[in-house]
Specification:
The chain has 498 residues and is an alpha+beta fold. The protein has helices at residues 2-12, 34-38, 44-55, 88-98, 117-128, 152-165, 199-212, 343-347, 372-381, 387-390, 415-439; strands at 23-28, 61-67, 78-84, 134-140, 169-182, 187-198, 224-227, 234-242, 247-251, 257-262, 274-283, 288-301, 304-307, 309-310, 314-318, 323-331, 352-370, 400-411, 442-448, 451-457, 462-466, 472-478, 483-486, 494-496. It contains eleven helices and 24 strands. Helix 1 crosses helix 5 and helix 3 (44-55) runs antiparallel to helix 4 (88-98). The longest helix has 25 residues, at 415-439. The radius of gyration is 41 Å and the shape is elongated. The chain starts with a helix and ends with a strand.
């Protein structure tokens, strides 16, 4: 039955013209949600609408569905809307779909419906998305009690096992929101919005959405990360660099560290230049505190990997968003660069050669715990809910890493080019002089048997000399530098005039 209810959504989400991955929005309407529907001041439906509009772009495939717990005759989730997003039109359609939605009841009676969070997420992934990339959003009061099971801690554990160990879920975030409501039967202080990125393409779209800032215009709370806990858990931010001769460092707006190196720059003793860099190591895995971890760092530049000496090899009690100073020494790969007077340098004169690389800091033997500030916030939003204990990360999450992109930019001046051009010019001038010298005619004066003569010749020519009787008495050989008489006949009276 559940597959039949979601079949319209699955048909819409087949590959189409839209470039972005499809998104499924699950809205809880079980009995525990009664105050969110009955309180006149409730912003529940408005929140769902605004999140949908912020998360989607023109032409994106979207599905809106309500959920509680599937029962015979009352399947869950239930698709309310399936279409491609179209701005103002989407707002109208979402409002129309949510307007009649109320608290669900169990079939054949007045008892309010129970909740199964895992069932809803599983149906969205397996049926609506057909296990293909996408985003699944879940709007819930965090009470997971199928069949009115009061062991909510165990049920929440099952839900979080699905999140942490479900291979399809690449990234999971939770937004705890303050939304006090009071209904006829229940009251609540808060609401939780989850988003699950399915497969790598879904994670990429979620990252892009967070970078865009659109979602933050609706939800200003910092998202609590559920998964992954072994990637991007800390951030590196360079705050101080001690430049070395011929090297200048700068930080680009995207956080990249750039080293501008003059061609041929070396440190004292002829070794590669190294710079002392002061970092801020920041905890980026809200809401967890890194109780302790071992630190190691390495650089990968110009195809060469080297360990980086750190001022400290450990981190302790690093709270979310809090920085820890960290010093290091970074050696630049100038040995792999073309020499200042090489042909490559001449070709690159007046420009720069870019060498992309990275600095990586690895955390091992990592121990995490839920921050006290988050525990207190959750206790205020969800009184009596054991959920904060269930945010405890899986035991096998022991390590993580932070990667900072680095760009080495080697600047080649125009001196090598000017020198090369000067050399070429000199060679051309020499060649032109040789050509002129070789092709220019010369006059050679000599005396044959007392008779002065003038011979017109060129370098490289051999001219026979005859006496008055017509007999050959010598041969005039002209070179680039002088003329000589060769094959002089015995007794012949022939000489060169100086």
């Amino acid at each position: 039955m559940k597959r039949l209810v979601m079949s319209a959504a699955a048909a819409l989400l087949l590959p189409g013209a839209a470039l972005a991955v499809p998104q499924v929005f699950l809205v809880q309407n079980s009995g525990w949600m009664e105050p969110f529907f009955s309180d006149p001041s409730s912003q529940y439906k408005a929140l769902v609408t605004e999140v949908m509009l912020a998360a989607t772009g023109q032409g994106d495939a979207v599905v809106l569905a309500s959920f509680n717990q599937s029962q015979p005759g009352a399947p869950s989730p239930k698709a309310l809307l399936s279409e491609r997003a179209a701005g103002a039109q989407l707002r109208q359609h979402v409002a129309a779909a949510l307007s009649p939605l109320g608290v669900a009841k169990k079939p054949g009676g007045s008892a309010l419906a129970d909740t199964d969070l895992g069932e809803a997420v599983g149906a969205a992934i397996g049926t609506a998305l057909e296990n293909k990339p996408g985003l699944v959003w879940l709007f819930t009061n965090n009470k997971n009690s199928p069949n009115n099971d009061q062991a909510t801690a165990a049920r929440n554990r099952e839900f979080y096992e699905l999140i942490h160990h479900g291979s399809a879920i690449r990234k999971a975030l939770a937004f705890p929101l303050h939304m006090p409501v009071k209904g006829k039967t229940y009251s609540a202080n808060g609401l939780m919005v989850y988003v699950f990125a399915i497969h790598d393409a879904g994670a990429a779209q979620l990252d892009a959405l967070l970078r865009s800032g659109r979602l933050r215009q609706v939800i200003t709370e910092t998202p609590a990360r559920l998964k992954p806990l072994d990637q991007d858990t800390v951030r590196l931010r360079p705050v101080r660099v001690e430049n070395v001769p011929g090297v200048n460092f700068s930080t680009l707006p995207n956080g990249m560290l750039r080293a501008d190196v003059d061609a041929g720059a070396t440190a004292k003793g002829g070794s590669a230049p190294a710079a002392r860099i002061g970092w801020q190591l920041e905890n980026a895995i809200y809401p967890y505190t890194i109780v302790s971890a071992h630190l190691e760092a390495a650089s990968a530049l110009a195809g060469e990997q080297k360990a980086i000496a750190l001022g400290s090899d450990s981190v302790h009690q690093l709270a979310p968003g809090k920085p820890q100073p960290l010093s290091s020494s970074l050696q630049l790969p100038v040995a792999q660069l073309p020499g200042k007077w090489s042909l490559a340098a001449v070709k690159a004169a007046g420009s720069a050669q870019l060498l992309p690389g990275r600095v990586e800091v690895r955390l091992s033997e990592q121990k995490l715990e839920l921050s006290q500030a988050f525990r207190q916030r959750m206790a205020a939003l969800f009184p009596g809910d054991p959920l904060p204990d269930i945010f405890t990360p899986p035991e096998q999450i022991q390590g993580s890493r932070a990667v900072l992109p680095v760009e080495v930019r080697v600047n080649y001046g125009i001196a090598p080019l000017l020198a090369a051009l000067g050399l070429v010019g000199a060679l051309l001038a020499l060649a032109a002089g040789l050509v002129i010298a070789l092709t220019r005619g010369r006059k050679v004066r000599l005396v044959v048997e007392g008779e002065p003569r003038t011979i017109h010749t060129k370098p490289g020519m051999r001219t026979p000399i005859h006496d008055k009787a017509g007999n050959k008495v010598a041969e005039l050989h002209t070179t680039l530098f002088a003329s000589t008489l060769n094959d002089l006949r015995e007794g012949a009276q022939v000489r060169l005039e100086k």
